[in-house]
Amino acid sequence: MTRGLRAASVPAVELKVSTRSHGGQTVMAVVGEIDLYTAPRLQAEFARLLQESATTRVVIDMSGVEFCDSTGMNVLLSALKRLRERGGALEVAGPRPAVRKILQVTGLDSVFTVHEAVPEELLTAEPKA
């Protein structure tokens, strides 16, 4: 019985991450909340991406992100640093008002290139088979 009660009292926090790469450019779509509990999932996805591919430009589509705390921002900054070390860039696309406000308050909107939506050229690119 305790098991059922415990499961009911802990909210299920989920973060969905999907990537699509083409020609050294990757769009990473993130859906959910990025916080202390889910940030390791995002960090692991960045680590996998940077280890397995020659990606130099990552556009993170945050239109599905409802909340992002300082832990999430630190993951983005870490990924930006690693991409810059290889001559690349990390860009933010489609942040919702709450995420945009965090970017503005922290000054990170001047660190990242922020787009209203994923750039058109990345939407029309055909992914590698």
UniProtKB/TrEMBL annotation:
<protein>
    <recommendedName>
        <fullName>Anti-sigma factor antagonist</fullName>
    </recommendedName>
</protein>
<dbReference type="InterPro" id="IPR036513">
    <property type="entry name" value="STAS_dom_sf"/>
</dbReference>
<feature type="domain" description="STAS">
    <location>
        <begin position="15"/>
        <end position="125"/>
    </location>
</feature>
<comment type="similarity">
    <text>Belongs to the anti-sigma-factor antagonist family.</text>
</comment>
<dbReference type="Pfam" id="PF01740">
    <property type="entry name" value="STAS"/>
</dbReference>
<dbReference type="InterPro" id="IPR003658">
    <property type="entry name" value="Anti-sigma_ant"/>
</dbReference>
<dbReference type="GO" id="GO:0043856">
    <property type="term" value="F:anti-sigma factor antagonist activity"/>
</dbReference>
<dbReference type="InterPro" id="IPR002645">
    <property type="entry name" value="STAS_dom"/>
</dbReference>
